[in-house]
Structures are given as structure tokens and as C-alpha cells.
Amino acid sequence: MVFDQGLLAQLREARHVVVFTGAGVSAESGIATFRDALSGLWSRFDPMQLATPEAFEDDPELVWGWYESRRMQVLGSLPNPGHLAIAELAKRVPQVTVVTQNVDDLHERAGSANVLHLHGSLHQPRCSRCAQPFRMPPAPPVEPAEGRRLAPPHCEHCGGQVRPGVVWFGESLPVDALEAAFAAAADCDVLLSVGTSGVVYPAAQVPEIALHSGAAVVHVNPEPQAFGGQHEWLLAGAAGEVLPLLVQ
Ligand code: BV8
Ligand code: ZN
Predict the structure, then answer these.
(1) Ligand 1, closest atom to CA 47?
(2) Is 34 in the pocket of ligand 1 (CB under 6 A)?
(3) Residue 177: pLDDT over 60
């Protein structure tokens, strides 16, 4: 793959790079994306029956079982060369801010620090009533297969049902993480948008803010992305192949 020299120079001279990631960065670790037509989770499951507060109220066992099977899948996965290249970038650029929509912990396990999780984490469940964090045992007593129902545990403080620590559709994003992400986007010189369809708001504002603030925005994605600006680039390919070449 041959990169544009101007783009490489911008990256080399950048003072602050934001790396904005979506499900595609974890695809090569074996974790399903959401919207890919064949393998995406939303081609097999209805988001409204699983990823909303109403779904959890209606059928907590279905929702908890689904998130537990996803958590188990992540625990059994490893960071891939894309995650590792992002962690490596922090050694080459004065400031790197990783902003992720992902609910896995693969950036952290690859060595990235202070990752801003806009959509929460599979690994930080909390009480649905009093919001106290719930400490999960490393693995559930019965490992859930995809689609198997599982009763959520109860909060040790108030007895309420424990819920996944992710942000569902219709819920607010964590204010601190969102504000920090917007501030980083407004401050950076280069934003790498890796493996995201960019359709879920307000997270999708992050690259928009960077672009409007004059940063170069680079999409790393095997699928063509709709974009137009003079400051936007597409590096077509898988994150685990493109990013190591870009960072080397
Ligand atoms: C909210 C966590 C206030 C749980 C997720 C403005 C306009 C229209 C609608 C809205 C709007 N503002 C808000 C909304 C509503 C809604 C929304 O955006 N809807 C969209 C879909 C129209 N947003 C919300 O509800 C948000 N909350 O706004 O609160 C509010 C409240 C009430 C009413 C109004 C406002 C909360 C949204 C949070 C949803 N939570 N997940 C879970 O994980 O189960 S969303 C889900 O999508 C994912 O978790 C992920 O975080 C997010 C983004 O998806 P991607 O990561 O981009 O994944 P996707 O599959 O789409 O794409 C993968 C990409 O990777 C593809 O491009 C593919 O080509 C590429 N790829 C594949 N392989 C590779 C690769 N790339 C590189 N390398 C590879 N190897
Ligand atoms: Zn509680």
C-alpha cells in the first residue's frame, strides 16, 4: 500500500492525533461488527429487542444473556495488529487520544492509556436501580451461548437487577467522556476514523468536529465511505493491515 506523502508528513508532524474507533477495529480479533450485512450483529438480532432500556425491562434474561455471551467472546479474544499499532502511535506523536464506541477492552489490553469509551463497557455492569458498580465473577457459572437466556445477578446494596454497563439507544452518553472527546476533536491536527460506519450519534460528531476545526480526517475502512472534504482521506483496507503500515 502506498500512502500519500502529504498525508504521511501531516501525521509525522502532528502535535495531537485523535483515533476514533468502531466495531471494525475489533473485527480481526473475531468480534462481530454491528452493521456488516453478513456477519454484523444487527443482521441476526433486532437492536430494539436487545440494546434499549425498554428491552431490558421487558426481558432482562434475554438481554443479560446476550451481553454475557458477548462479554465471554471478548474475554476469549486478543488485541489485533490494528489495536497494537494505535498503542504504538502514542510513542511517536506528542499527544494521542483514543476515543472508542466499542464496549470491549482490546485497546487497553493493547497498551493504549486513558481510552474514552463513549458507549460504556461490557466489563463494568452496574445496578439498574442504584447505579452502584457490580463486581463480576471472571466467568458466569454457565457460559452462555449466543441467544441463551440468563438471569441477571442482583445488586448487593439494594437488591436491584444488575444491567450491562453499556449505553443503549435512547440513553445519554457519559458526559465526561463525550466532552473530553469533543474537546480532543476540536484540538487535534489529524483524526483517524477506524472501522466505523459513523451513523450513531452523538458519537459520529467526533470526526465532524475535527473536520470543521481544520484537522485532516483519515478513514481506515475496507468499505468505501461517503465523504467529500479536501481534508478527508480514505485508506481502503482492514485496520490490522493498514494501521501497522501507517505507523511504521
Ligand atoms: C442519545 C452499545 C440522547 C451497546 C451502541 C441524530 C440523528 C439521528 C438519530 C439520532 C441522533 N442523535 C441521537 C440519535 C438516536 C441514536 C442514533 O444515533 N441512532 C442512529 C442509529 C440513527 N442515538 C442514541 O440513541 C444515543 N443516545 O442520543 O441520547 C437522546 C435520547 C433520547 C432521544 C434522542 C437523543 C446512544 C447511542 C448508543 C447506542 N449504543 N452500542 C452495545 O454494544 O450493544 S451502538 C452500536 O453502534 C455499537 O455499539 C457501536 O458503538 C455503534 C457504532 O457502530 P460501529 O462501531 O460504527 O459499527 P458498525 O457495525 O456500524 O460499522 C463497522 C464498520 O467497520 C463498517 O464501516 C465496516 O466496513 C468496518 N469494518 C469491518 N471490518 C473492518 C472494518 N474496518 C476496518 N477494519 C476491518 N477489519
Ligand atoms: Zn443497587
Answers:
(1) 44
(2) yes
(3) yes
Fold of the domain built from segment(s) 32-76+120-166: SIR2/SIRT2 'Small Domain' (3.30.1600)
ipTM of the complex: 0.94
Which residues are annotated as catalytic? 119
Residue nearest to atom 58 of ligand 1 (CA): 23
pLDDT at residue 43 greater than cutoff 90 = no
Q: Which residues contact 193 (CB under 8 A, 6 or more apart)?
A: 20, 207, 217, 218, 219, 220, 221
Judge whether 181 and 105 are in contact, CB under 8 Å: no
Would the CB of 104 count as within 6 Å of ligand 1?
no
Ligand closest to CA 202 = 1
Torsion sign over Cα 35, 7, 106, 186: negative
CATH class of 1-30+79-119+173-248: alpha beta
119-167, pLDDT tens digit by residue? 999 999 999 999 999 998 766 555 657 678 999 999 999 999 999 999 9
Domain-wise residue ranges, the chain: 1-30+79-119+173-248, 32-76+120-166
